[in-house]
Design goal:
CATH architecture: Beta Barrel
Number of helices: 1
CATH class: Mainly Beta
Strand order of the largest sheet: 2-3-4-7-8-10-11-12-13-14
Structural class: mainly beta
Number of strands: 14
Order of helices and strands: EEEEEEEEHEEEEEE
Number of domains: 1
Distance between the termini: 55 Å
Helix content: under 10%
Shape: elongated
Strand content: over 45%
C-alpha cells in the first residue's frame, strides 16, 4: 500500500505574488492597485494539475530604503486529482470518484510584505519577507478532510492557513515612469517563486516560471503564473 500521499491547500501550488515598486520613487510614493493573475501548475503527483485565478487589491508604499505592499485577495480554481487509492477488506484496490477527478476551491485572505533596500542611484538591492493569513473552502478542501479521516491521504493545514516567504530583490528605475524588478521567494505559496516585474506608469506586468525537472521539454514548466495590475489612482477608478 506504500506511504500515504500528502495534500496541501491549493493556494500553496500558486506562485508568491511579487513586490511592486512605485515609479518616480526619489521621494515617498503610494499607489493602490487592482490585480488579476493566473497560475497553471502541475500537481504534487503524476498526472495531476491545477488552475488558479486570483484577484487582489494592493496598497503600495515606496521609499528610498523601504518598500511595503499590503494585499487583500480572493481566488478560485480547479485541482485535478488522480491516483488516490482505496482498499476494501480483501485488499482490492479502487479509485473512488469522490477522491479523484476535478475538485473546485475558493479562498480569500490578506498579506503584508516588506523589503529593505540599499539604493545606488537608480538601482535598489534588498531583502524582504511576506506573511499572510487566508481561508480555503470547496470540493478540494472537503476531499482533503474526508480522505484524511478515512486514512487515504495526509492533509497539511486546515480551513485557515498561513503563508510566509523570504526573498532577495533587485529593482532598477529605467525612467521616472518605468521600474523593472526581479525577486525569488522561498517559502509558501510556491516553495520557490522566481518572478519578473515591469511597472510602466501604473500598469504592472509580472511573470513567474519554475522549470519542470521531470520533463525538460515542457515549455510551461512545473508552474507558470502571469499577472497584470493597474494603479487605480492614475486611472481615476475611484477606489
Amino acid at each position: 500500500m506504500g506511504c500515504l500521499r500528502t495534500y496541501y491547500p491549493a493556494v500553496y501550488q500558486s506562485s508568491a505574488p511579487p513586490m511592486v515598486f512605485e515609479t518616480n520613487n526619489s521621494t515617498t510614493e503610494s499607489g493602490k492597485y487592482q490585480s488579476v493573475d493566473l497560475t497553471l501548475s502541475k500537481g504534487d503527483y503524476e498526472n495531476e494539475s491545477l488552475q488558479l485565478l486570483r484577484g487582489s487589491y494592493l496598497i503600495v508604499n515606496t521609499q528610498d530604503y523601504l518598500n511595503t505592499n499590503t494585499r487583500l485577495f480572493g481566488y478560485g480554481g480547479i485541482y485535478n486529482i488522480t491516483g488516490v487509492e482505496k482498499y476494501d477488506k480483501n485488499f482490492a484496490v479502487s479509485y473512488p470518484k469522490e477522491f479523484n477527478g476535478s475538485k473546485s476551491f475558493l479562498g480569500a485572505g490578506g498579506e503584508f510584505g516588506l523589503n529593505l533596500n540599499f539604493k545606488i542611484y537608480s538601482l535598489k538591492i534588498g531583502v524582504g519577507f511576506t506573511a499572510g493569513l487566508s481561508a480555503e473552502l470547496g470540493d478540494y478542501y472537503n476531499f482533503r478532510k474526508k480522505a484524511t479521516s478515512q486514512g487515504l491521504i495526509k492533509s497539511e493545514q486546515g480551513l485557515v492557513l498561513f503563508t510566509l516567504s523570504g526573498f532577495p530583490i533587485i529593482a532598477y528605475e529605467i525612467s521616472e515612469k518605468t521600474v523593472i524588478s526581479s525577486q525569488v521567494n522561498i517559502g509558501f505559496p510556491g516553495f520557490i517563486s522566481p518572478s519578473f516585474v515591469l511597472n510602466d506608469d501604473g500598469s504592472v506586468y509580472w511573470l513567474s516560471w519554475f522549470p519542470d525537472f521531470d520533463d525538460r521539454n515542457n515549455g510551461l514548466g512545473r508552474r507558470l503564473s502571469i499577472g497584470f495590475m493597474m494603479d487605480v489612482n492614475k486611472f481615476n477608478l475611484g477606489f
